[in-house]
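Kindly go through one protein, given below as sequence and tokens. The question is how this chain folds according to its tokens.

***
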Amino acid sequence: MEPTFVSYDVSDPEDIKVETTIVAGTGCSGSKSIFVVADQTAPYAVYGNYYYGDAKCSTVFSVDENGTLKEAMQEYIYQTGSAVHGTAISPNEKYLFSADTKGNMLWTHEIDRTTGQLSSIGWVEGPSENSGPRHIAIHQSGNYAYIVLEEASAVAQYSIGDDGTLLRVGNLYSLLPDGLDSADYWADEVSLSAENKYLWATNRARGDQKGYISAFELDSTGQISKQLYLQETSTSGGFANSASGSPFDESIAALTDNSTGFVEIWDVNNGVIAHLDIRDGQGCCANAVWLD
């Protein structure tokens, strides 16, 4: 199947409808669509990424007055060998940051606030050889970005300059206990709590080992002050051992599982406080979205 992006009408939560389907990424032969983020203010541009195969490009989409995807208005290239798995927009919506897992790089693009199109500012290499930057979370202050490193099984913290440049701060924070080999794992997700007091991060196992979840405490500027805990999850996590911070409760996050299929609620102080099996026979769950 060709890489495709879809917009939905969600005005009626009991009758969600497909509005538009756009095939894009023609500059990326053999790739699949993997990730999408959207501006929260006009012109409400949407930024889509690709993975697998030749996935060196990304696409900017425009929307109509209702927010429906309209057309692919810009395709831009990272570099040969790149494959970006996650992106994030700065709080002031001036910059788009990209985690280039296969290229082992972090990219900064400036967003044209009139058109939504991008221009490249630059890139920095991952914090170690083949570290595999995967996903990005950005503190609400705009001071710091947190990167989960798939191959290194760790979290890195970067300061964000006024010009969008990234500079690593401090040491890496491991998502594995001492003595375990990062080659047996592949870290998955980073997610901030409602008021950005805590950072959640997760790690999946490639085999039958258990995965891990970690919580970090942040100071008022966004600096990581300490790693609160690193705790084993009940399964490997499969392809997705993903944490999603609650948008209305500072202390909790949802953890999904793709190996057996469940959703758990984790508390920064008490660990697992709720568990729901979803037995669809497929290991249902890759991501969780909170509803208020």
